[in-house]
């Protein structure tokens, strides 16, 4: 039998890490060789529940001690670039949980490190694996509803802590330096990366954000960024206040409208009732971030669509421009000079 791929995990403060570790182990190709994290309780969980072979309080110590093939990075947004750079210097590939980093400068540094050392870098976006979301993108790109002149992607729940996120997660989500902002960076990032993939970079953005409902945090709990193109405008919306949760999208085209709702994909055309669209399953080897990373390495190809670090880097530029636009009450041109 081939030797299992040696996986390390850097950071355990991003709550998505536990689902991702399960996905890695389900591939049957990976051994969780090591984990690094400053909080002992999280290291114990990685060891006891997921079989981490060795645990370290220091990422540098782990990378020096363990010969790894891939790292899963689940630090705060602000710490992810340093983690990827340290891994890339050793020829270790990386999967980073969205939205990549806290700032554009950090995203550029991360991308440069992977390019310099010729390591693979995949950015994992949970909605990438939702079948209606992915098939909607395919239909938009295929021209199924003509030219899309407007779209809204809204990601919303009642708030990280209220939604059940751990203290370890919330501690940095609510820190503008560690997160890069608040709800805008956390949840507008989904629409930013989807629109960048579908339509390229906008000419400019307008935005609004504010802390309107939560007295116990200082970052924005609601936000919206409008991306302006020559022949369309699209909006990515975020809320840490909405009841019930909502994670869906709608695309308005010149020959029809597509939208996702409650795990289904719908289409409406002129003079016709809305109809549900059958959604194909994901292909084996491309059903999760871990599977896709292993497939990319095996085939020598770059990660697809929103998983591309280049696309995610551009989404970071959109987010940073959105923060600037909201804070200064201006339309912000792209690229930023």
Account of the 3D structure:
Helix 4 (80-88) runs parallel beside helix 5 (104-117). The protein has 2 domains: 5-126 and 285-306, Rossmann fold, CATH 3.40.50.720; 131-283 and 315-333, Dihydrodipicolinate Reductase, domain 2 (2-Layer Sandwich). The chain is built from 12 helices and 15 strands. With 337 residues, the protein is α/β, with parallel strands linked by helices. It has helices at residues 16-26, 40-50, 59-65, 80-88, 104-117, 131-141, 160-163, 167-173, 176-179, 183-199, 289-299, 309-328, and strands spanning 5-10, 30-36, 54-56, 70-73, 93-97, 121-124, 148-156, 204-210, 222-229, 232-239, 246-253, 256-261, 264-268, 275-277, 332-333. The strands form 2 sheets. A 9-stranded mixed sheet has the order 14-13-12-11-7-10-9-8-15.
Task: Kindly summarize this structure in a few lines.
The chain has 337 residues and is of the alpha/beta class. 37% of the residues lie in helices and 25% in strands.
């Amino acid at each position: 039998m081939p030797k299992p791929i040696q996986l390390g995990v850097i950071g355990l403060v991003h709550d998505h890490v536990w689902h991702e570790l399960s996905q890695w182990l389900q591939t049957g190709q990976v051994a969780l060789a090591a984990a690094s994290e400053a909080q002992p309780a999280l290291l114990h969980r990685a060891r006891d529940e997921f079989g981490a072979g060795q645990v370290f309080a220091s990422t540098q110590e782990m990378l020096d001690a363990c010969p790894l093939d891939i790292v899963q990075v689940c630090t705060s947004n602000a710490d992810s670039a340093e983690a990827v750079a340290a891994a890339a210097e050793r020829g270790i590939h990386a999967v980073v949980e969205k939205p990549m980093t806290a700032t554009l400068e950090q995203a550029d540094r991360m991308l440069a490190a992977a390019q310099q050392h010729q390591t693979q870098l995949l950015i994992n976006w949970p909605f990438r694996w939702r079948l209606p979301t992915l098939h909607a993108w395919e239909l938009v790109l295929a021209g199924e509803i003509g030219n899309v002149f407007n779209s809204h992607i809204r990601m919303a729940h009642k708030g990280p802590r209220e939604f059940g996120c751990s203290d370890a997660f919330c501690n940095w989500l609510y820190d503008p330096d560690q997160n890069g902002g608040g709800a805008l960076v956390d949840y507008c990032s989904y629409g930013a990366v989807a629109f960048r993939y579908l339509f390229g970079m906008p000419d400019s953005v307008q935005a609004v954000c504010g802390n309107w409902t939560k007295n116990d945090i200082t970052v924005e709990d609601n936000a919206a960024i409008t991306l302006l193109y020559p022949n369309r405008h699209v909006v990515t919306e975020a809320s840490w206040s909405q009841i019930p949760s909502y994670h869906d999208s709608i695309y308005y085209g010149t020959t029809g409208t597509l939208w996702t709702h409650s795990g289904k994909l719908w289409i409406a055309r002129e003079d016709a009732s809305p109809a549900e669209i059958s959604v194909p399953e994901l292909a084996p080897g491309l059903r999760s971030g871990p599977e896709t990373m292993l497939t990319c390495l095996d085939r020598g190809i770059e990660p697809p669509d929103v998983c591309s670090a280049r696309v995610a880097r551009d989404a970071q530029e959109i987010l940073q421009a959105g923060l600037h636009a909201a804070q200064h009450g201006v339309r912000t041109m792209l690229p930023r000079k």
